[in-house]
Amino acid sequence: MKLTSILTALIFFCTFISYQSQITNEDRPKSWELLGMKPISSINLPSFDFKSIQKEDQVSDKILEIPYRFGYKFDVNYNLQNSGNWETLSNGDRIWRIRFTSKGALTMNFILEDFFIPIGGKLFLYNNDKTDVLGAYTFTQNNTNRTLGTWIVKGDDIILEYFEPAAQEGKGTFTIKKITHGYRSGVDLNASSDCNVDVNCSIGSDADPLKDFLKKSIGLVLVNGDAMCSGALINNTSNNKKPYFLTANHCYSDPATWSFMFNWISTNTVCGTGEDSISNADYHTISGATLKAKREIADFCLVEINSEIPEEWETVWSGWDRTGSVSPWVFGIHHPAGDIMKTCRDSDPIVLGNMWLINNWEVGYAEPGSSGSPLFNNNGKIIGQLCCGSTRCVENTYSTGSYSYGRLDVSWDGGGTPDTQLKNWLDPINSGITSLDSYPSMNLNIEENFFSNQIQAYPNPSKGIFTIDLRKEKSELNFEIFSVSGILISKGKLEKRINKIDLTRKSNGLYLLKIIKDNSVVKSIKLLKE
Predict the structure, then answer these.
(1) Phi/psi of residue 401, each to 5°?
(2) DSSP string covering 210-257, please?
(3) Closest of 298, 488, 482 to residue 404, by C-alpha
(4) 159 and 240 both lie in a single domain
(5) Mean pLDDT across the stretch 118-122?
(6) In Å, what is the CA distance from 266 to each residue of 9, 190, 352?
(7) Boundary (domain end) residue, out of 151, 182, 213
(8) Residue 97 lies in a domain
(9) Mean pLDDT of the chain
């Protein structure tokens, strides 16, 4: 297979994955491929009273029940008709671009209203030196609220680019209503206190297997366009991967504008030593959610992310326990100060009050930005979410503070209506159970993860015959193969250790093999036929 064909297949494959799962950052703006595009002038955003903002942050940064603010938000009104530059290509396709400069900004992000992208349309955000790009936002991001909150782009000189096919002329619409100048960069690597420890640090042999599995449920969420909180995907009794996300009520703003990041985990392990963590590249963002329930007295907020969570992200939906039983020890996973994922542990029995009370962490720390993060019991099940407290980190040696977590058992059926309780959403089949395992099940997944790591497909690339080696006998396994356009082209059973899949009659290119057990994908493999 020629290199150009392989590259073309890769581009199509990335586009296929993007359209199927609302992944961003998997594509490149159309203008980057073209010569002779006209330069565009910049709209300069005004200055603001930064010293006054800093003074406010000095106070709020000590209060956990206030979301971690990272930016100053401008109210604006720019759309496809009243601003920006349109250029029509030779085939009738059109490109619209607009450029904003906010002097000194570390990052910028945007809230769009009246948002609608037709099929084939693409919206990108990128900095002027093209070192950071966000997109494509496509028709998959359309929602009934007609609102989009973008993730952040690094830099103070940012371009929004909208591509519209000739066949869809005039059908796309959006208005830029808010722009955030990030004066501390939101997703701010090493911004949190030195008392924090990376999520891959050990917090005890009894807790580590739970933590290392459940970190796949944790998300950093951008709220109100200018602040950060933490939270977690949470399971429901239908075990159907409904993208429910639990966080704190005090983080609430219109969730249609929220944007989420999963799997932001350091590639090295810094455990309270004061050294710098290093960012991984394999993190994922997704935008938009719908409120399901919230209640101030229990400080909980449950939203449903508007898009399905892609299987390729290998996320976990945490289980929960609503018994109100006192756990002998607890742990948390969170994003303090919008930093890379951290963890903490209290080895003492948790204190039962109107909320769960923790007097100190033996390992780790929590601070603004950790708000809404889950509290797990000794069985690895959510029993609450971080509300409030006071904290102090002394160098990187120890921390002091008290912390309150809203209790899941109080949030379960309090308030009396579906929009003030968790019951209707987390137990849709009305089972009445008091605790629920994660999805996938943690015990099953330990086995499945081991098995998944053993599966191999070879040769890859091949001329069409692929060997699927399961490395150990395994029953009740099925497979499905999809083309780059998302069409199911083959399916069957894997009944032996060594299995053969024949694609000799199929066209050269990329295919996606999914290996399935009990209706769950345990491994995805890209196959290249040449």
Answers:
(1) 155, 165
(2) HHHHHGGGEEEEEETTTEEEEEEEB--TT-S---EEEE-GGG-S-GGG
(3) 298
(4) no
(5) 95
(6) 31, 10, 34
(7) 182
(8) yes
(9) 88
